[in-house]
Amino acid sequence: MTGLNPSQQAIADRTEGIIVVDAGPGTGKTYTVVGRYLNIVKKRDVKGRDVVLLTFTNNAAREMEDRIRSQTVGKVPPDVEDKLKSIRVSTFDAFCLATVLDSPQSLSDFLGIRETLTHGARTVEKDSLNKIYFRQVLDRFLTGHAAEYPDAAAVASEHADALYQVIAKLMSRGIVPLRRGWFGGHDGRDLIGDLPAVREAVSELPSVKKKDPLQCPLPNPEQYRDSLLAAGFDLSGTDLFPNSLRTAAADEDRTPLLALVHDVYFEFIRRSIADDRLTFGLTACFAFLILYSDDTARRRLSCRYLMIDEFQDTNANQLMIGLMLLTEPNLCVVGDWKQGIYSFRNATVENILYFRERTAALRKFLNEDRPADRRRVPYALGEITELPLVENYRSSQLIIDAAYAALYIPTRSDEELDRATLDGLVTRITSARPAIGTATALECVSCPDSDSELDEVLRTVIGYVQHNQICEPDGTFRPARFADIAVLCRKTATCRALYDRCGTCGVPAFLQGDMEIMRTREGKLVLAWLKYVNNDFDRWGIVPILADLGYPAADIRNMIAPPDESRRLPIPDEVTRQRKALRQKRRRITDLVSSIFAFYGLNNDVTQAINTVLSSSHRNSLLTISDLINLIENDIATDTRYTVDGLPDRDAITIQTVHSSKGLEYPIVIIPALDRGSFPNTRGDTDVYQFQPVTGLRCRRAVVHFAGREQSVQPSWQTALVNLAFPPDRSEERRLLFVGISRAKQYVTLIAGSKPSTFFKYYAEEGSYPVRKAGTVPPHCPRLSELNQTTPVPVVPAFASRRRSLGVHDILRFGDEQENAGSGDEVCGKGMEYGTQIHLLAQKMAEGYEPTDREKTDYPQLTRVAAVLADINARHPDLICPEIECSLPVDGQNVTLRGIIDLLVVFPDHVEIHDWKTDVEDRFASEYRLQLSVYAHAAAGFYPNHPPVTCHLQWLTRETTETFTPLPPAAIAERTGEILAATDPAGRA
DNA sequence: GTAATGGATCTTTTT
DNA sequence: GATCCATTAC
Predict the structure, then answer these.
(1) Interval A77-115: pLDDT, tens
(2) What is the pTM of this model?
(3) Strand C closer than 7 A to residue A416 Cβ
(4) Which of A508, A534, A783, A976 is the most exposed place for a label (fewest CB within 10 A)?
């Protein structure tokens, strides 16, 4: 490969041995990895299968593979091209899942569990569902065993989520419960921690200067009064022996806690295996255990060369997997500890920072029980070479230096950072973009309050677009566009607020990442209109609508509830007219929602997402407006997030979190809300269960027994005291700022509100960066208010090129007979709740669940479900898959249909689609046939050989099955076209 | 002058 | 719960 710079070339050329690559931002990491990969594959004695490349995201894996292909097709000898057919590039998750499904028996053998995972094992990605599942496991377990750990069980049942989290943390470190005792973590000793070190740290806490009576280093000692008294400390005198208190905290007896965590953890694993239910964490942990315990499986999956990308995002478990995978010491890890921002996912930058020590220790652990000829890591680590990438092809030197400065800023006034240590860890990089010249700056803007902060962001955006020049890779300049600008926020809430402001001010923007879309302006407008349309008497539903239209608060009050009738104002015509129009659509929900957005001229990423969510939420039952209102309110209440994928197909700024900006680059970056408490976030760990190698496993809550047999769960003074001696590490916040600033090529604006954080103050006060006055308009820049009027709102061009996503239900027609919904065609006349419940139970039954008698009584249709499932099982299918999402691109239309198949059954020679229908009558049968046909064609697409697919309408109430072959794709395309013509605003125009 | 104290304010990130 | 900051105490 040509075009590699010397530091890149050195890495690509060193194909053997163990290499740690420090790849700073914008240094051409992917390029180098691909070059190195090809150099390895070109070797005569290397087969395609010998090389493995592991990444974290599907995108990264795909990009690596694409780049490898594009650089080789027709450019390398045929034998090399041949090797690339067996290329092994995958994500950690995918690799681990394959490993687990490869040898499920070894896993059960190792753990001593009777049950085994089957090929039908499914990964549940949604963490909220996993927490619910864990809670069930915990509750069931405690029912029989709570008495064995009296106090610990009481705390656990109150804090199931926290227990789940700490167990996930243990998994990521390869600490696993065996039937007896622990595996990994020095046979569980890590859970106790390094007691001498804890004792010493606690005893070195600053001496007590505070007044009596509680001579105790704890802040707010009063809240521990009860537990200290219960623990036998004498609080009567002025002198409370601080030293004995300290030792007692360090040496707290945690035997019951450890026993409980062990047993619940083991039970969670056992039940997950029995239920064929995986999480990301379990899969990774299981893959590790299989590679550890099954020599054959390890050899089968092994490789001679391994490269791991984004190595700063790995955890101990993944590093061990990597070490065991290799048969030779040819490991290349690539990453940048300065961009390690995923500790909440249990990643640890120590893997790359202290690579030498960690690999040596892990290798020792993995080999210690084995003779020399049967080692799991069968090679010596040998020399470990550290090779940095030092040339940055993205940013100006000014930006690079500003980013590096972030790593040295204290997060609170008394935090002391050791400059020398940091200097030792930091590899400096230099800008290789001289063409940028002086067209680069970092400026600071301080605002009086957080509301004007949003305006300031927009003002800054407009200033950039009007005045700044962007340096193209070839060195030429052109005027800046909206699309050159990214606003990177610490919190999603800020992203959302900003997006809303862009909407009202007419600045084109798209929101990226997982967002609480129901809390956006769009979401709130839908909710307000639905309420207003749904209920004549809900006068207050109209308030947000009027406010959004810009009516003054006083006028609104006089429209809704005037202090006296003489002041009453009429509801504006535009609103009543719209309400009337919407009321006529109240039976066509999707149409209704689209009309609401059309009223505002809104058609964007968020409206798309809301449309998809709302239309896919109704299943075969019909959705009422009340159902939708409930759904939205529930989503708001539970902070539900949905993925908004904005395609940058128009000139708009990007709004996203700093986290999701990793790996991306923009000419201009604005980082707002550098406010105290927010960025850096100073909220400490409040998880009830905590685990760190030094302090071990501890719990922040304890049961306090009062004299009179009463008891209650209170903060644990022991844990509080220990934590006081180990202040929280906020270096990740610095790295986050590093990531944010280093996304920029030329310009950065930092914005803070009335209480700027230490981060902001550093740049504004200590650096030599320009400070712009808030509210002042940059020269030549029109005032925002003027801009509001002169810029046509909305600045939303047609979305013709955009691929639309429709729910399958959107293309179904249920006719106007639905006016009678609730009496006739609504599922058994019992509403959506009923139908949803049956689907939920049917799903669980397909997974082996036996409904309770109560459920059988409440839902008589379940008998039919059981019969259908029994029939399916009797025919020995390869796979039964309930509730699987599918999507079908429609030929000739720029549309993808999405839906959820109730039950997908795979046989060796054909595939069946089953759908539960609870309708009393079959009047919608033809629509349902269309629905299942969509599923059928989507399912056929899963399989490369396109097996024949049959559809089965399961009429549960009528106790019949209707089997048919799917309608042709043309029928689906025709209907989709009709629906689009009727609802697409562009089509009408 | 320093040290203690109370009040106000903030409260994530998601393959 | 952690942090900063203004106020109070001496």
Answers:
(1) 888 888 888 889 999 999 999 999 999 999 999 999 999
(2) 0.76
(3) no
(4) A783
